[in-house]
Amino acid sequence: MTDARTAETPVVTPDRTDPESAIAAAAQRCSNWDRWGEDDVHGTLNFLDDAKRASAAALIRRGTSFSLSLQFNMDGPQKGWRRRTNPVHTMLDTGTDAEAGTQGFPHGLGGADDVIAMPLQCSTQWDGLGHIFDHGRAWNGRRAGQVVTSEGDRVTGIETAAGLIVGRGVLLDVGRVMGTGGELPDGFAITTEHLERTIAAQGASAAVGRGDIVLVRTGQLTRARREGWGDYAGGAAPGLSFTTADWLHGSEIAAIATDTWGFEVRPNEFDNAFQPLHQVAIPNIGLFLGEMWDLDALAENCAADGVYEFFLTAAPLPVTGAVGAPVNPIAVK
Predict the structure, then answer these.
(1) Is the C or the N end of the chain the one with fewer CB within 10 Å?
(2) Which among 217, 216, 208, 212 is positioned nearest to 168, based on CA atoms?
(3) Are 146 and 140 in contact (CB under 8 A)?
(4) Could you give the domains of the chain?
(5) Do you know which InterPro entries this protein is assigned to (predicted)?
(6) Looking at residue 148, what DSSP letter applies?
């Protein structure tokens, strides 16, 4: 399954005092602009075609399924950064209303109804291609202001990906292979070498190839579940190193998700930067990033049977014009 381009990934060590130059150089090396035409809105999801979805279905052997989503509730990880709050769930009709006979339905009928208010990226979610810009440019070189306006993302809204993210999933349990007790410490930068060592340790079923949906487990969510959310949302965390940009591009994966709030290592690897890998991956590579995925139960199962590939369906909620959306990913083995 490994693409030949992966073996040719260059090793680049950027100057941590110069994020601007490092980001510009990585963006130029890894750009997929116009690769699928000037009108493209799917980015790396173009690598995930019908044939790959069909072959992924053959990975289902036992039918055992795993939800990879956190719960959406008021006890979630958010702390209010940039007005991101946890979901607020409110009942509109309840059983007590039905018992009281105040709902106005005939012949004894009663019911319950509810509403939820939440930021679209408050829990398990996908970053869409309109979520991050590079010097005012969105995916495929479009002007950011012509893509995302007060009306939402009018070009690459998350609804354009609603039926596409279904295929072969691969778990890279870096926390189990490289960490202590299955967990990487906060601030641990996962390099290409760490990814490749994890693949080698896990065996043939963990080989990563074109069109795959890669899931990287760090173990930070395991720690948060044990110790409390703390600074999980936005604080220090293990994650992908900026230097993996070339691997993300060269491997031709369709999408990648982690069990952390911000996907990449935090603090970031430059003296003055914020989420530099996002700046390369989303607007330049066209890569869909998933965050806050719960990979623990799946990881235990994969470790037990030694099989790290599975059928994965991970459709975002198709909120028209959204730049990100909640998802309940389901892995089936």
Answers:
(1) N
(2) 212
(3) no
(4) 4-80+119-332 (3.50.30.50), 89-117 (no CATH)
(5) KFase/CYL (IPR007325), KFase_sf (IPR037175)
(6) E
pLDDT band at 80 (very low <50, low <70, confident <90, very high): confident
Using CA atoms, how far apart are residues 274 and 276, in angstroms rounded to an integer?
Answer: 6
Enter the DSSP assignment of 146. Answer: H
5 pLDDT higher than 90: no
Partners of 289 in the β-ladder: 127, 256
Mean pLDDT for all residues in the chain: 95
Return the SS3 of 216: strand
Extract the tokens encoding 161.
């990906």
What pTM did the predictor assign? 0.94
C-beta of residue 284 within 8 angstroms of C-beta of residue 134: yes
pLDDT of residue 12: 63
Distance CA 11, CA 90 (A): 51
For residues 2 and 323, give the distance between their C-alpha atoms in angstroms, rounded to a whole number.
31
Q: Are 218 and 198 in contact (CB under 8 A)?
A: no
Within 10 A of 74 (CB to CB), how many other CB atoms are there? 11
Burial 107-127 (b: 16+ CB within 10 A, else e): eeebeeeeeeebbbbbbbbbb
Note the pLDDT of residue 81: 85
Q: Position of tokens 């509109």?
A: 92
CA angle (235, 239, 241) in 5-degree steps: 120
